[in-house]
Write a structure and sequence with these properties.
Elements (H helix, E strand, L loop, with lengths): L3 E9 L3 H14 L6 H22 L7 E9 L2 E8 L7 H4 L16 H8 L2 E7 L3 E9 L6
Antiparallel strand pairs: 1-2, 2-3, 3-5, 4-5
Helix pairs in contact: 1-2, 2-4
């Protein structure tokens, strides 16, 4: 059985929209009948990626746009979080646990680590002064009734 569905959305880079992104993803993947743990994993990873776009990509400026594309292909859920912010100079360094580009803001530096913990794969593409795209996947086994 081949199943495919997709949704694309965008929203302003304001902190209130982080919860919106979580809910959109949760509603979208509900068609796969995920476990509570799978649902929580995806929501947490999406929250971290969106927060990174808002806090780091746009430096907390409210006039940026965050793009979120979700796709289901059979049992594979893919979500892309993209911004047109300042980009990441050193992706490898940024993905190290405890590294933060905003130590004065009391950030923990665990965002990418959290994403990697809860998703099956995390790929980060970034160009300085152009933006960042985080692509995450999670296999969600469909339940057979």
């Amino acid at each position: 059985m081949n199943y495919y569905n997709t949704i694309k959305t965008s929203f302003l880079s304001i902190p209130e929209n982080e919860s919106l992104a979580r809910m959109i993803c949760a509603s979208f993947i509900s068609q796969l009948d995920p476990t509570i743990e799978e649902l929580t994993d995806v929501k947490t990873a999406v929250s971290e990626a969106v927060t990174n776009s808002i806090v780091h990509g746009y430096s907390g400026k409210n006039n940026g746009v965050v793009y979120m594309d979700c796709k289901i292909c059979d049992e594979l859920f893919t979500v892309e979080i993209k911004d047109n912010g300042k980009g990441i100079e050193d992706i490898e360094k940024a993905m190290e646990p405890m590294y933060t580009s905003c130590p004065e803001a009391e950030r923990s530096g665990m965002g990418f680590t959290v994403m990697e913990t809860f998703m099956d794969s995390v790929v980060v593409n970034s160009v300085v002064d152009v933006g960042t795209k985080v692509t995450m996947t999670k296999h969600i086994k469909r339940k057979i009734l």
